[in-house]
Amino acid sequence: MKAVLCADAQLRVSEISAPTPKAGQVLLDVLRCGICGSDLHARVHSDQVADLAAESGYDGFMRSHQDVVLGHEFCGEIVEYGPDCRKRWPVGTRVVAMPIIRQDSGVHLTGLSAAAPGGYAEQVVVQEAVTMAVPNGLSAEKAALTEPMAVAWHAVRRGEVGKRQTAIVIGCGPIGLAVISMLKASGVRTVVASDFSPRRRKLAAQCGADVVVDPATHSPWTSYTPRNEVGGVRDLLDLGIGTMERLQKVPKLPWWQVFRLADAVGATPSGPVVFECVGLPGVIDQILASAPLRSRVVVVGVCMEVDRIRPAMAINKEVDLRFVLGYDPSEFRHALRLIADGKVDPSPLITGTVGLAGVENAFAALGNPEEHAKILIDPKSPAVAP
Questions:
Q1: How many angstroms from the chain centroid is the CA of residue 233?
Q2: CA distance 374 to 170
Q3: Most distant CA pair in the chain: distance in Å?
Q4: Per-residue tens of pLDDT for the chain, all 386 residues
């Protein structure tokens, strides 16, 4: 079969052996495969990422010298089952799958490991246990975005955003746009989106952002009506004194119980939930310095370089800093259902399609935020430009 191989930071279309499904696996014809920002990073930083992954407990991440078929955001049709499968769906059924697979050397990341070829190919093998049928006649284009939408859904859940809270999304690339879509799907009333790119700001509005900000001219931190926020440490201390003075005017009032009740109902000072979706050095520290007191910061962007933050800044503001990765099977299914039921529309993210011969051009085009957000690969397409 034809596939796009990545080695030594170069991409090339090659003829390789078609994969054979092993026990518990399913062979798919790839219908669409998304190009992810992780693919762009892995192409040029694979050894660095592999070292970090090994230190974290996974030693199967791709190395620069290996021939690797990238692609972990895909939709396909069932061609053949391997041994010991339940064969839950007939051949020809359109499915998506979590990009993890069990091989002889253990479990590997599909499309990010030499042991698990991905969807930049005519066919791909997936694990039946984490494969899901595409419902409601959903198009292959939209279904292929289940994976990035699941990443966003996991981030939103980890952010624990209340419907009346403000969510601020810093960076409106594909993952930021997906986070905006999922925030609105979860019922969050006020979503602020910030990006320097006019094109991305336009897409953010299409994904449902209530306020869209160019940080070169306006601050995202002053672009919404705050709830339960205080301006700084001095204001917080003054609020504490003022509150105690008012409470102590009420005879025999157990003021400590009033504090506990206020905290339980969310009436105590708190900041917005901030989603960092840029992944460049310095951005986290900028957010810590700028965000209101008691904000919650969810780091979704993947910074591939050593970064620097000032912990004392986060301490002084009592900022909650969370990092997220991936999703679980339930979140993956939920993302698929949200798309299939029309509650989330990933269409604004899709800005181009290429065939296998156009992947190199697509990677180059994705370097310009004014041109593209998400480019899909259609292995049967002759298109060489997105």
A1: 33
A2: 18
A3: 84
A4: 999 999 999 999 999 999 999 999 999 999 999 999 999 999 999 999 999 999 999 999 999 999 999 999 999 999 999 999 999 999 999 999 999 999 988 999 999 999 999 999 999 999 999 999 999 999 999 999 999 999 999 999 999 999 989 999 999 999 999 999 999 999 999 999 999 999 999 999 999 999 999 999 999 999 998 876 766 667 767 667 777 778 778 887 787 777 676 666 566 667 999 999 999 999 999 999 999 999 999 999 988 888 999 999 999 999 999 999 999 999 999 999 999 999 999 999 999 999 999 999 999 999 998 989 999 999 999 999 99
The CA-based dihedral angle spanning residues 91, 96, 98, 102, taken in that order and rounded to the nearest 10 degrees? 20
Neighbours of 37 (CB within 10 A): 17
Q: What does the alpha-carbon distance between residue 33 and residue 69 come to, in Å, rounded to a whole number? A: 12
Candidate CATH numbers 3.30.230.80, 3.50.50.60, 3.60.20.30, 3.40.50.720; the one for domain 149-229+270-323: 3.40.50.720
Q: Answer yes or no: are the C-beta atoms of 296 and 320 closer than 8 Å.
A: yes
Single-letter code of the amino acid located at 366? L
Q: Report CA torsion sign: 364, 335, 340, 90.
A: positive
Per-domain boundaries in the chain: 2-145+346-377, 149-229+270-323, 233-263
* Tokens standing for residue 192: 């602020």
- Residue 175 near residue 374 (C-beta atoms within 8 A): no
Among 64, 244, 276, 100, which Cα is nearest to 179's?
276
Strands, DSSP E only, in the chain?
2-7, 10-15, 25-34, 68-69, 73-81, 94-97, 100-103, 106-109, 123-127, 131-133, 166-170, 190-194, 211-213, 273-276, 296-299, 320-323, 350-354, 374-377
| Whole-number Å distance between alpha carbons of 224 and 205 | 15
CATH code of the domain made up of 2-145+346-377:
3.90.180.10
For residue 336, with 0-12 CB atoms within 10 Å meaning exposed, 13-18 middle and 19 or more buried, which class applies? buried
**Neighbouring-strand partners of residue 193:** 169, 212
Q: What SS3 state is found at 351? A: strand
